[in-house]
Amino acid sequence: MGQMPQRFGRYVLLDRMGVGGMAEVYRAVAPGAEGFKRDLVVKKILTAQAQATNFIEMFVHEARISALLHHPNVVQVFDFGHVDGSYFLVMELLRGRDLLAVLRSLRERQRMMPVPIAAHVAHQVALGLEYAHALTSPTGEPLNIVHRDVSPSNVMCLRAGGVKLLDFGVARAIGEVESSEATETGAFTFKGKLGYMAPERLLGRPEDHRVDLFALGVVLWEMLTGRRLFQGKTDQDKIRAILEKPVPAPSSIRPDIPPSLDAVVARALQRAPENRYPTGREMADDLETIVSDTKYHSRMLPALLTELFGSSPSAAHAAMAMLPPELLAVDPTPSTTPSSAPSSAPSTTPSVTALALAEESTAPAPAGALRRRLLVIAGVTVGAALMGAGIALWSSGPRREAGALAAQAAPRTQPTPPPPPPLAAPTPSPEPAPIAAAAPEPEPVAVARPAAVRRPAVMKPHSAGRISRGLSIDPFAEAASRGVKK
Length: 486
Fold this sequence. Notes:
CATH superfamily of the largest domain: Transferase(Phosphotransferase) domain 1
Structural class: alpha+beta
Largest sheet: 6 strands, antiparallel
CATH class of the largest domain: Mainly Alpha
CATH topology of the largest domain: Transferase(Phosphotransferase), domain 1
Order of helices and strands: EEEEHEEEHHEEEEHHHHHHHHHHHHH
Number of domains: 3
Distance between the termini: 94 Å
Radius of gyration: 39 Å
Mean pLDDT: 74
């Protein structure tokens, strides 16, 4: 990858954290607008394997399964794509050490892991496995996800006290091939670490989620004793140990281990799957009781990590402090999620955002339409107010007032009309005069009022004055006065 730090798509790679047979892992940062930065991990397929179809398929497969998993005890995957044909995964950056590093550090100091911490770590991993094992599709169909690589290097102990399960790269989901695949020479290749494989995997028998519980039992035995359980100079020696070696109780090596923890280890390590824990939930329940009985508290694991590895500041924070501004500039080109082989041809289809911006920049401002809408809204509002005023007047004796007004006007014009029915009383005049008179000119629109909506001369001056002052008018008196003029 050359000198660090360096740009990788929209991410900045700070330094390389590790490398395996399929991929290399980098500490990275995702820059954003207004100085936003987020620490991440970029898992990138090795350059030597970038053209190997089987490695690419495994990498894509890991991304698809990881995207389904959202649990406090499972590492979170945020992004997947490729840059210049190089596939990558983006995951959360975990502050802590993997269990393998913890066990090695304890062995170097000739110390044993405290029993409460070992029970806590196993309990948290069992919860994560139960979640993955029980996961279903959106239609409710079981996905039957099996991790198949539960081992100390894939268990992360966090400085905040939590525990997370890593690397579903060799996991199997429903409808996929079995774990052992015959080669042209008749040999079998296994996905996962040999020392943590259940017997049924080695014998080529059908497997299910209980192979993960067997592996967790091996991890728990090794945490309690500080030793490797299934060892051998060759792979054949390891396989023979898994299939035949008697498993001693952890308390036979370490007397301070309670019998209840011996029982959990013994059940998880049963060679016949039907004799093991049927689910991770049941194993987690037994471990939860032991965690409580051994008086584990949340500060134990963070204190152990600080004691073993110190409390130096994060290497990611130190590296970010040295980043030049040009590397932190926001990259407008997003990573692409591959559905097939990567293509180097640029896309010619404009984005939805670009189309929306183009439409906004070319469309004229609808000033006339806005003015008409404001006048209509104001008119409707005043009409509703007039209707309410009419109803109030009618309920408080509008029949007498309307009759008196009509009687005064009778000698000069025509006989007194009968009082209007109740439903007709609040009906506003069909003439536009009240609406036009009550509609104030909206200040933001600096245009003249159209002649068609100017105040007509039929409205009485005293009525117009009341409306301009925000007061109501008597609709019956107004109707009678218009009748007189007719």
